[in-house]
Amino acid sequence: MGHAQNNVEFKALNIAILTVSDTRTPETDKSGDTLQKGVEEAGHYAHERAIVKDDIYQIRSVLSRWIADSVVHAVLITGGTGFTARDSTPEAVIPLFDKQIEGYGELFRSLSFDEIGTSTIQSRTVAGVANRTVIFCMPGSTGACKTAWNKIICEQLDVRHRPCNFVEMVMQKG
């Protein structure tokens, strides 16, 4: 997969996890559980976790607090990336980005195509950076969370991954 530089020491990040859903609860949030497990198994800290209704202003409220928090390095958002009337994650987060990570959505859909075929075009995954906080949005399914974390995000949040990653940038936050 990626290229690792063995003489660089791993740096654990504080990662917040937001589930966007009108129906999930802490007991039924399997996608949030999947992301938290991935974060912790990679050696990072699950700093905070929240569930909000699929509402632009509720999403922005929680995300803005985490972006402003000097302790939070990254945010993983699951849910609200489809095309139903209630799916509003991209509309909520894109205005908060200082810079958008264009290749994330493209790469996610390319990888996802191998798993779900052309249905991947219904995934409006986006990522960006705001106040040196890297933010990755992914669909609400557990499979999509595994694909995004295992095949893209985990490496980009590992300082040993070369030729580049987001760790040095987010560690300068605050």
From TrEMBL:
- Report domain MoaB/Mog positions: 16-160
Answer whether the UniProt record assigns the keyword Protease to this protein. no
Cite the SMART domains for this sequence: MoCF_biosynth
**Pathway in which this enzyme or protein is active:** Cofactor biosynthesis; molybdopterin biosynthesis
Pfam families named in the record? MoCF_biosynth
Does this UniProt record's set of keywords contain Kinase?
no
The lineage's top-level taxon is Bacteria
Gene Ontology cellular-component terms for this entry are: cytosol
Matching entries from Gene3D superfamilies are given as: MoaB/Mog-like domain (3.40.980.10)
The record's annotation in CDD domains points to:
MogA_MoaB
Query: Single Gene Ontology BP term?
Result: Mo-molybdopterin cofactor biosynthetic process
Keywords carried by this UniProt record: Molybdenum cofactor biosynthesis
Q: Look up the signal peptide feature and give its range.
A: none
Q: What does this protein do?
A: May be involved in the biosynthesis of molybdopterin.
- Give the family this protein belongs to, as stated in its UniProt record: Belongs to the MoaB/Mog family.
Q: Which NCBIfam families does the entry mention?
A: moaB_proteo (TIGR02667), molyb_syn (TIGR00177)
Name of the featured protein? Molybdenum cofactor biosynthesis protein B
Organism of derivation? Neptunomonas concharum
Taxonomic lineage from the root: Bacteria, Pseudomonadati, Pseudomonadota, Gammaproteobacteria, Oceanospirillales
Its encoding gene is what? moaB
